[in-house]
Amino acid sequence: MKYNSPNNNTNKPDNIDKSNNTNKPDNIDRSNNTDKPHKPYEGIDLSRLPKHVAIIMDGNGRWAKKKLMNRVIGHEKGSETVRSIVTSCRKLGVEVLTLYAFSTENWARPKAEVAALMLLLKKFVISERDALHQQGIRLEVIGQKQKLPEDVRQELDASMSYTSRNRKMCLNLALSYGGREEIAHAVRKIASKVKKGKLAPDKITEEIIAQHLYTRKLPDPDMLIRTGGEMRLSNFLLWQACYAEFFFTETLWPDFTEQEFLEMVKEYQNRDRRFGKVVCSSNDLSQH
Ligand code: FPP
Q: How far is 140 from 173, CA to CA, in rounded Å?
């Protein structure tokens, strides 16, 4: 189902339950909220939104194969889904959306497919530049940006600097990204500081490691979605997904809709996130 905003307004709808909304960060501008009610948001509690949603967009190739089309057509259709889910997240009030767009392992795909993906990425970055800016979305990249083709990097840099002051949402593209590579990269940076005497080995904490990851400025993901039916992490956000809630769907990425995404958000809000702790009453304790 396609979200059809009244007056093409990009702000959040008013029919979300905004009572008891205490977890808003200070650097997100939520002013100018003039939207009209819209059905898909019914039942979503704004006070318990995931701050960070991360998505493994899988199934483009199979989508194309089912239609006897070239895999590249699947990626093209997938980039339309990207546009729609970015807007959904923005309208809902998600602060960070991380999309696994190209992994360190994806370089091993046939040259023509890699070239097509890079071209698609470049086209997307150019065509969406103004739309992202108008929606108050900041573009960021995690991964080995230096490995991307020069022309793609230039367009990414242009969009990142153009949107850098936007605070409504961060669209974070994982490009030439691998979780293990990210950790190795962080370890190299930490080791270099230790070697120079800037950091004592016994001062290396979880926080220090997190501060050296590509995601150092971002909260950990609350929801991690994988489309396409596989149930694995595939080297995505290995450190950060520690307490993420996982959502797997058979839906192939080009067919993934705002409606299915919002159903997942509702399910997320029904999950009991304990972060390894127990919630117990005095009755529970008195029985032991
Ligand atoms: C996995 O599907 C998907 C990718 C490797 C690329 C994802 C790229 C896009 C969604 C489009 C471009 C991205 C942006 C941000 C504009 P697959 O090809 O592995 O599918 P399969 O498992 O069915 O073969």
A: 6
C-alpha to C-alpha distance for 96 and 168, rounded to whole angstroms:
9
Q: Give 232-260 pLDDT, tens digit per residue.
A: 999 999 999 999 999 999 999 999 999 99
Domains along the chain with CATH numbers: 48-178+218-286 (3.40.1180.10)
Shortest-distance atom of ligand 1 to CA 75: 11
d(Cα 62, Cα 194) in Å, to the nearest integer? 47
Instruction: Give 75 Cα–ligand 1 centroid separation in angstroms.
Output: 5
Q: Radius of gyration of the chain from Cα atoms?
A: 20
Measured in angstroms, how far is the CA atom of residue 71 from the centroid of ligand 1? 9
Model confidence, pTM: 0.85
Please, what sign has the CA dihedral across residues 15, 21, 27, 32? positive
Which residue's alpha carbon is nearest to atom 10 within ligand 1? Answer: 78
